[in-house]
Automatic annotation (TrEMBL):
<dbReference type="GO" id="GO:0006511">
    <property type="term" value="P:ubiquitin-dependent protein catabolic process"/>
</dbReference>
<dbReference type="InterPro" id="IPR050409">
    <property type="entry name" value="E3_ubiq-protein_ligase"/>
</dbReference>
<feature type="active site" description="Glycyl thioester intermediate">
    <location>
        <position position="114"/>
    </location>
</feature>
<dbReference type="InterPro" id="IPR035983">
    <property type="entry name" value="Hect_E3_ubiquitin_ligase"/>
</dbReference>
<dbReference type="Pfam" id="PF00632">
    <property type="entry name" value="HECT"/>
</dbReference>
<dbReference type="InterPro" id="IPR000569">
    <property type="entry name" value="HECT_dom"/>
</dbReference>
<dbReference type="GO" id="GO:0005737">
    <property type="term" value="C:cytoplasm"/>
</dbReference>
<keyword id="KW-0808">Transferase</keyword>
<dbReference type="GO" id="GO:0061630">
    <property type="term" value="F:ubiquitin protein ligase activity"/>
</dbReference>
<feature type="domain" description="HECT">
    <location>
        <begin position="1"/>
        <end position="147"/>
    </location>
</feature>
<keyword id="KW-0833">Ubl conjugation pathway</keyword>
<comment type="pathway">
    <text>Protein modification; protein ubiquitination.</text>
</comment>
<dbReference type="GO" id="GO:0016567">
    <property type="term" value="P:protein ubiquitination"/>
</dbReference>
<protein>
    <recommendedName>
        <fullName>HECT-type E3 ubiquitin transferase</fullName>
        <ecNumber>2.3.2.26</ecNumber>
    </recommendedName>
</protein>
């Protein structure tokens, strides 16, 4: 894929970093480069749910955070540039985004990994949101479904 003259510029660790991204997931960076639906944004009717989302995310273990990232984007790693460097299926820049959806008992968040998006139910409590997000990361994800 790459001509050999470009490959010799990197050692094996640098090449892995460029191709695969970084393993460290910075929640502050993730939050900074996230687009939200209007109601979830600052001052929005459901801004509290977005605050809960970031609080729960910050409390997750590194491994669970990576699983949630994989659920939402298809990758457990962050681009070298951080979350501002996320791309969609076509290679174009595509920020992580969260869209509010109505809450129904037992509903879990949905992902649109090609577009780096989570549809987040408007959970009535932080505990219910945490349970929903933890249920996702503890599922063994090996396939995807079309709904």
């Amino acid at each position: 894929i790459l001509p050999q003259q470009y490959l010799i510029m990197f050692d094996h660790k640098e090449l892995e970093l460029v191709l695969c991204g970084v393993t460290e997931i910075d929640v502050v960076d993730w939050k900074q480069f996230t687009a939200t639906s209007t109601t979830l944004g600052p001052g929005g009717a459901h801004a509290m749910q977005m605050d809960w989302f970031w609080e729960v995310l910050a409390e997750l273990t590194f491994r669970d955070r990576a699983k949630l990232l994989q659920f939402a984007t298809g990758s457990t790693r962050v681009p070298v540039q951080g979350f501002k460097g996320l791309t969609s299926y076509d290679g174009l820049l595509c920020p992580f985004s969260v869209k509010a959806i109505p809450y129904r008992r037992g509903i879990l968040p949905r992902a649109h990994a090609c577009f780096n998006r989570i549809d987040l139910p408007l959970y009535p409590t932080k505990d219910l949101m945490e349970q929903g997000l933890l249920a996702l990361v503890h599922l063994e994800m090996s396939d995807f479904t079309m709904v």
